[in-house]
């Protein structure tokens, strides 16, 4: 960030200028992490898309390379869209991606590194056999809804499998293809999974998670101590949903345990701005890492003025919660090496109506970790059974609406005098036999410039506040507030564009705007050093 660029990030990945969207084909090769991303080298808006390429040894500092994949063949003449990397036997990476052909049909192409001894994998070659999968009159695949191949997985029968996002009418579909040699692909008679009435499934992701530990698994792993996750990005709402379930290898179908990939209910990686995400298995640290695109909440004219659009979320480790019912995410631990000037508050009772300033950190570029202990449970408001939509509830009960137990949490990117602030907070309600924890990210006062999208976000956090401390961590980065509630059980990412709370004009507070006191058990805050992000 600088005086005329107050919204540029200090440690979230972004290119120097122009448009960026989906993360593509992340991988680790010879100890080097690779990130490709959808990039328009010519403009601040989406358009002429190539795969831009950066590498890192720590997932924090990145160096740029030339675009790895760009239109150069018949089968991708009109665009090189999203895709994934698969590590083939012998450790050889292979990229499957969507190309847009001269008839504007969506087809799937293969590219492999030219030189495997180059750890930066700078040059990629495309097979002359492209496209390898294409819509035709026999398969009845919709040529404008056939894109974003996943990382492929290898079955015990020696056949690779990959899914491609699609739809038929309003039915979202994960079309399955199989191959013995990664070049000749045959469509499976039935999709891996489909769901009625939720439109195009963009950027599907399908991977196993361990039921025993938070370690990641190779995408081809099978066995009894694992479940599978299917995630889709819904084009209609620009939200992502996932389910946890079982991969039936004999039938080659995925069966969710509960819930559905439906746009009104269901689990989300992130309840704010986060889209077109993709995971990969990090063999160096045996973890699965999630990358996701954080799009803008500003107007196109504002984007044109600042000369860029789109950032990537901090990569997150992702694993199955002990309950087996949801995933948990946490920023990769490497990001913590940017922490400096630690400020710690010992436990402190936050009385109703209190605001506590956290000074000594660069509030525009910070990492904050706060936890609360609740004791006055009998005062919790009774939840109305109609309140099933957390975002709606956060919208009705923003940070300025006094409750009993809450709102309490953080005021980030705040101006002196609180003309501007983004409030990330909890409220606790009483249900029949338990307490319900609501987490909100309220952007309604985040900027005096009302041309920005100031939508409030919300999520329920599946924690038991009677027996557990309630934690909240926020990564604050000029125009990004990436928040993790309940140790990563609910994540909400917001884009904000303050006009006063920029650079040295930004302040950080803990607050409690409920009537009842809450115990702030601990607060740690750090200034974040700048990372090398191109
Ligand atoms: N972005 C890509 C598509 C994908 C969409 C095009 C998701 O492949 O479906 O830039 O944001």
TrEMBL record:
Keywords annotated in UniProt: Glycosidase, Hydrolase, Signal
UniProt xrefs under Gene3D superfamilies: Exo-inulinase, domain 1, Glycosyl hydrolase domain, family 43
Domain Glycosyl hydrolase family 32 N-terminal, first and last residues per copy: 12-331
Ranges of residues in domain Glycosyl hydrolase family 32 C-terminal: 334-527
InterPro entries: ConA-like_dom_sf, Fructan_Metab_Enzymes, Glyco_hydro_32, Glyco_hydro_32_AS, Glyco_hydro_32_C, Glyco_hydro_32_N, Glyco_hydro_beta-prop_sf
Assigned protein family: Belongs to the glycosyl hydrolase 32 family.
Protein name (record): Beta-fructofuranosidase
Species in which this protein is naturally found: Rubroshorea leprosula
Biological classification of the source: Eukaryota, Viridiplantae, Streptophyta, Embryophyta, Tracheophyta
């Amino acid at each position: 960030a600088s005086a005329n660029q107050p919204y540029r990030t200090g440690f979230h990945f972004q290119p120097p200028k122009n448009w960026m969207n989906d993360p593509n084909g992340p991988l680790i090769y010879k100890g080097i992490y690779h990130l490709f991303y959808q990039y328009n080298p010519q403009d601040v808006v989406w358009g002429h898309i190539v795969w831009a390429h950066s590498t890192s040894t720590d997932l924090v500092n990145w160096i740029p390379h030339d675009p790895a994949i760009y239109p150069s063949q018949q089968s991708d003449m009109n665009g090189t869209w999203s895709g994934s990397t698969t590590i083939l036997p012998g450790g050889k990476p292979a990229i499957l991606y969507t190309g847009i052909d001269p008839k504007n049909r969506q087809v799937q192409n293969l590219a492999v590194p030219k030189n495997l001894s180059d750890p930066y994998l700078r040059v990629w070659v495309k097979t002359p056999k492209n496209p390898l999968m294409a819509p035709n009159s026999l398969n009845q695949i919709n040529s404008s809804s056939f894109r974003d191949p996943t990382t492929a997985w290898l079955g015990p029968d020696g056949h690779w499998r990959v899914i491609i996002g699609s739809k038929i009418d309003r039915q979202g579909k994960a079309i399955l293809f199989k191959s013995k040699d990664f070049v000749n692909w045959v469509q499976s008679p039935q999709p891996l999974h489909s769901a009625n009435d939720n439109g195009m499934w963009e950027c599907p992701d399908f991977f196993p998670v361990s039921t025993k530990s938070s370690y990641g698994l190779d995408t081809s792993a099978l066995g009894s101590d694992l479940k599978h996750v299917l995630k889709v990005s819904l084009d209609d709402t620009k939200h992502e949903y996932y389910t946890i379930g079982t991969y039936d290898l004999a039938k080659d179908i995925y069966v969710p345990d509960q819930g559905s990939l439906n746009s009104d209910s269901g689990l989300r990686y992130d309840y704010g701005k986060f889209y077109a995400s993709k995971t990969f298995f990090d063999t160096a640290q045996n973890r699965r890492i999630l990358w996701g695109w954080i799009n803008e909440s500003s107007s196109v004219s504002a984007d044109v003025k600042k000369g860029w659009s789109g950032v990537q979320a901090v990569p997150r480790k992702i694993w199955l919660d002990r309950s087996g019912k949801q995933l948990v995410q946490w920023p990769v631990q490497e990001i913590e090496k940017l922490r400096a000037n630690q400020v710690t508050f010992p436990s402190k009772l936050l009385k109703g109506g209190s605001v506590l300033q956290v000074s000594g950190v660069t509030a525009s570029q910070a990492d904050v970790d706060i936890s609360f202990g609740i004791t006055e449970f009998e005062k919790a408001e009774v939840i109305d059974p109609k309140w099933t939509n957390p975002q709606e509830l956060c919208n009705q009960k923003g940070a300025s609406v006094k409750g009993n137990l809450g709102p309490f949490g953080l005021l980030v990117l705040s101006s002196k005098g609180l003309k501007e602030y983004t409030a990330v907070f909890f409220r606790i309600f009483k249900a029949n036999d338990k307490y319900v924890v609501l987490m909100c990210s309220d952007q309604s006062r985040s900027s005096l410039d009302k041309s920005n999208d100031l939508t409030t976000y919300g999520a329920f956090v599946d924690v038991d506040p009677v027996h557990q401390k309630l934690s909240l961590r926020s990564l604050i980065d000029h125009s990004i507030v990436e928040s993790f509630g309940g140790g990563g059980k609910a994540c909400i990412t917001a884009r904000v564009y303050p006009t006063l709370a920029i650079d040295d004009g930004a302040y950080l507070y803990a607050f409690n705007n409920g009537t009842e006191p809450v115990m702030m058990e601990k607060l740690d805050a750090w200034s974040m050093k700048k990372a090398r992000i191109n």
